[in-house]
Amino acid sequence: MQTSKECVLNAIEGKGPDRIPLCMDFDSDALNRAITENIVKDYNADILIIPSYDPEFVPVAEGYTQWGYKMETFGETMGEVKNPPLKNWENFENWKSHLPDFTAPGRYAEAKRCRQLYPDKFLVGGLGMMMEEIINLRGYANCMVDYYDEEENLNRLIDCLYEVGKQMVDGYAEAGMDAVMAWEDWGLQRGPMMSYQMWETYYYDRMKSFVDYIHKKGMKYFLHSCGHITYLLDVFTEFGVDVIQMDQQMNMGLELLGKWTGKICFLCPVDIQHSVQMTKEEMGSYIKDMIHALSTEKGGFMYKAYPQPAAIHMPEEQLRQEIELMKNG
């Protein structure tokens, strides 16, 4: 039997995994923990995602993130930023001066500990939301206007985020991680968040350089992106993004996504907009269709449970059902 690390690498590289690799990385708040704490104990995950956080960092105020904002939650969702710290660009230098030290050794102590504790697991260092932080820092409406009216300021912010990203890549590489992962939602429900031409202007060269940087450090690159993102999948495969993690598939369709089968490794749960409403038979049928569409005989598909089951009202029993069906898929 292949070790977790061997199985995951074989799935990513198309070298024949002996099973579908599993990733069960869940949010640690009380609502999600109530659903998942026994599941984590009962299932042997192949992929572990290790977050980056400096235990010595002091936020600007209680409840604020390392990026200087506070998420205001409503219901079971992660919420949104009500008062973006960069609502006014005049605050940029002050905001930047209060960022934590992303090179601090303590930030990667947990990654090093996990590497020693789980030598045969596939370990992924979490980079955070990367470019999605622009929305949190500026606010969605401001952010969308910035692409037209604030090119200089927006470029300063993007460069800052990529520089921090590279510092984190360095820290994770030194800690012995197998990959790093960023969360970037580039799509809306039925189409792109922006035109490809606009995306290319701001991100093409930067992302290409970033992916190259990660690979030179000997790690794989996992990229999360939800929404309708087919307008970027050719570019992601061109750059050598190793794994695309998408929580939605049905809005694009498995047949269309199959165009990239064998070119990039898919890391997915059952579509989170539909899974809770599915019967066991429907879920089992969809899982078989998804595996058939998105993988080859030599791999190309892995499973990642949705990290916020409470947000989609998925009970523990149904989450267990999804995992079991995926294992037997």
What does this protein structure show overall?
It is a single chain. With 329 residues, the chain is an alpha/beta fold. The chain has a single domain (4-327), classed as Alpha-Beta Barrel (TIM Barrel), CATH 3.20.20. It is 43% helix and 11% strand. It has twelve helices and ten strands. It has helices at residues 4-13, 30-42, 92-97, 109-117, 133-138, 140-149, 151-175, 196-216, 230-239, 254-257, 280-294, 316-327, and strands spanning 22-23, 47-50, 71-72, 80-81, 122-126, 179-183, 220-224, 243-245, 265-268, 301-304. The strands form two sheets. Strands 1-10-9-8-7-6-5-2 form an eight-stranded parallel beta sheet. A two-stranded antiparallel ribbon has the order 3-4. The radius of gyration is 19 Å and the shape is globular. The model has no long low-confidence stretch (mean pLDDT 95).
